[in-house]
Design brief:
Length: 157
């Protein structure tokens, strides 16, 4: 799968992987602070942003997509930064291309299975809105609040 990405700067590569429902722009501030000294690669993971969509979505599949991109761009000594779901992808990626990765930074996630996570509640709320053709932002926020999701989290998504 050919992923959408943004490549800037030059030097040692730093690869940024966003969280669930995100896109490559989510980590703009971090990447922007490093672009003067590093080659920054921001990636839209499959089924996110401008990357292609697929019925197959799993951490191994997403990691393989990123591995293919890193090989295509001939990256080595990669510093990998993954936020939330992107952190899970980063951990999986470390098993696919360990020879190309120098360091991994994982933010807001751990290598454990989460049961009843807030993301599951958010996903159910958003699916409810889609299934009921609720498209007004205020109505979507009301559905999410009713599910117990805070305003701060609602605004993030």
């Amino acid at each position: 799968m050919k992923l959408n990405y943004k490549l800037q700067g030059k030097g040692q590569p730093v690869v940024f992987l966003h969280g669930v429902f995100g896109s490559l722009d989510n980590l703009n501030q971090l990447a922007g602070g490093l672009v003067s000294e590093y080659l920054t690669l921001q990636v839209d993971l499959r089924n996110h942003g401008q990357s292609p969509w697929s019925d197959q979505i799993s951490y191994p599949a997403m990691a393989q997509d990123v591995a293919d991109l890193c090989r295509e761009l001939q990256l080595k000594d990669i510093i990998l930064i993954g936020h939330s779901m992107g952190g899970k992808v980063a951990m999986q990626l470390s098993q696919v291309i360990p020879d190309l990765i120098q360091k991994i930074v994982v933010i807001d996630i751990a290598p454990v299975k989460y049961n009843g996570s807030p993301n599951a509640i958010i996903l159910r709320s958003l699916m409810y809105c889609l299934n009921n053709q609720i498209t007004d932002r205020k109505q979507i926020m009301a559905v999410m609040r009713e599910a117990g999701i805070t305003d701060a989290i609602c605004l993030f998504y």
